[in-house]
Automatic annotation (TrEMBL):
<feature type="transmembrane region" description="Helical">
    <location>
        <begin position="76"/>
        <end position="95"/>
    </location>
</feature>
<keyword id="KW-1003">Cell membrane</keyword>
<dbReference type="Pfam" id="PF01810">
    <property type="entry name" value="LysE"/>
</dbReference>
<keyword id="KW-1133">Transmembrane helix</keyword>
<dbReference type="InterPro" id="IPR001123">
    <property type="entry name" value="LeuE-type"/>
</dbReference>
<protein>
    <recommendedName>
        <fullName>Lysine transporter LysE</fullName>
    </recommendedName>
</protein>
<dbReference type="GO" id="GO:0005886">
    <property type="term" value="C:plasma membrane"/>
</dbReference>
<dbReference type="GO" id="GO:0015171">
    <property type="term" value="F:amino acid transmembrane transporter activity"/>
</dbReference>
<feature type="transmembrane region" description="Helical">
    <location>
        <begin position="43"/>
        <end position="64"/>
    </location>
</feature>
<dbReference type="GO" id="GO:0033228">
    <property type="term" value="P:cysteine export across plasma membrane"/>
</dbReference>
<keyword id="KW-0472">Membrane</keyword>
<keyword id="KW-0812">Transmembrane</keyword>
<feature type="transmembrane region" description="Helical">
    <location>
        <begin position="141"/>
        <end position="161"/>
    </location>
</feature>
<feature type="transmembrane region" description="Helical">
    <location>
        <begin position="107"/>
        <end position="129"/>
    </location>
</feature>
<feature type="transmembrane region" description="Helical">
    <location>
        <begin position="176"/>
        <end position="195"/>
    </location>
</feature>
């Protein structure tokens, strides 16, 4: 293991893992609606999807780099899905504890598969820091696992943040306002990804 490269990889990964992005905002929004505990299956799906995607990107890094059209198409699909999620959040009514309209593990996995930002992030990791844990697929899987752990911490913190918002703003009017703000923030992320895609 190359310690200097590992530190560089973490310096790249840590800030990105805690900034507002599709996964972080969805964790916060879902937790503000359904509570932290009910958001854990969604976060589990995000982690599983991220590690799965990281492993696939590790295998296919060269193919994806050579096929920019595929990457761009997946990014557009991801933008549409993020906009859909932002709409669901922004238009959601306050739910009673235990309501069944929760996003689960499947949604968490699906978000990773269509998240063009995740592809780009993992592609950069796999191509720039691909030898941190040695060569081959084992090294790539280790990168995906370490990165998944860092992402897990970020998603849990954003989920706790959303749950805290739910407790602070427990009346219906403020709860709906939080839904609107979270939905609008997630929509802003989709627009930001789309604008950057045009550069």
């Amino acid at each position: 293991m190359d310690t200097a490269e590992l530190l560089l990889m973490l310096a790249f990964t840590l800030p990105i893992s805690f900034l507002p992005g599709p996964n972080n905002l969805l964790s916060a929004a879902h937790s503000s609606q359904h509570g932290f505990r009910n958001t854990l299956p969604l976060i589990l799906g995000m982690v599983l999807g991220w590690i799965l995607l990281g492993t696939i990107v590790g295998y296919g890094a060269l193919f994806i780099e050579e096929n920019q059209g595929l990457l761009k198409s997946l990014t557009y699909i991801g933008i549409v899905y993020i906009i859909y999620l932002s709409y669901k959040i922004a238009t959601a009514h306050l739910l009673e504890e235990g309501d069944s309209n929760e996003e689960g593990t499947k949604t968490g996995i699906l978000l990773q598969v269509v998240n063009g930002k995740a592809f780009i992030h993992l592609l950069i990791l796999m191509t720039t820091f691909g030898h941190v844990f040695g060569g081959g697929i084992t090294g790539k899987i280790m990168i995906a696992l370490v990165n998944g752990l860092v992402k897990l911490i970020g998603w849990l913190l954003w989920g706790a943040f959303g749950s805290g918002l739910k407790r602070i703003f427990s009346d219906p009017k403020s709860g709906i306002l939080i839904n609107r703000i979270m939905g609008l923030s997630l929509f802003g992320v989709a627009i930001w990804i789309g604008v950057n895609l045009q550069k």
